[in-house]
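Incident log, structure service

09:12 report received: a user says their structure output differs between two submissions of the same chain.
09:20 pulled the input from the user's history:
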Amino acid sequence: MKKLFLLLGLIEYRSLQLDLSREEFIRVLSPHVGADTMSGLDIFSSGKTDYKGAVGYNGFYLRRKRGWVNNSRHYCKMIGIFQESSSGLVVNLEFRYFPPPVYFFLIMIFLFGAFSILLFFIGLFTFNGKSIISAVLNMGAVFGLGAIVGFITRSFSANAIQKMYYELDANIFRYRKAKL
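09:34 re-ran on a clean worker, output below:
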């Protein structure tokens, strides 16, 4: 399943090189991360945190706090694992972008595909030409719907993932500057 999500562009891997130590990164980021409640009422929360999730010694889990403007970016979740190197801290990031409409379309594609295959075999064994033609048309619809879902989710996920990546980098710099 993970390969399908990688193919659709719903999961992406990146790394971030920082000239911080692990402890300094945790100290800088932790005050800006609130508890993740996965509630749909994040818009009305008055907390000063920019992210929801958790920050630990080995890594972190973040998602953007839901707001009035960034409605699509709160679906993007970021998982980071720390690795220290001689030049600083390397954060290996995994971005996951799963908006709820994608689940609906993936289920519909699966159901239409299963129905098409079933209809094809019924038509094949009963020598019914109408069933075979309708099965082939359904398979074409499945591939067409899959292509549309793939293009739409890839464009939205690439945009959301890129914004989350650059926002994290900029926010770490901004938070660090505010601490000094």
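09:41 both user submissions now match this output. Likely a transient worker issue. Closing.
09:42 reviewer note: The radius of gyration is 22 Å. The chain has two domains: 2-99+164-179, 101-148.
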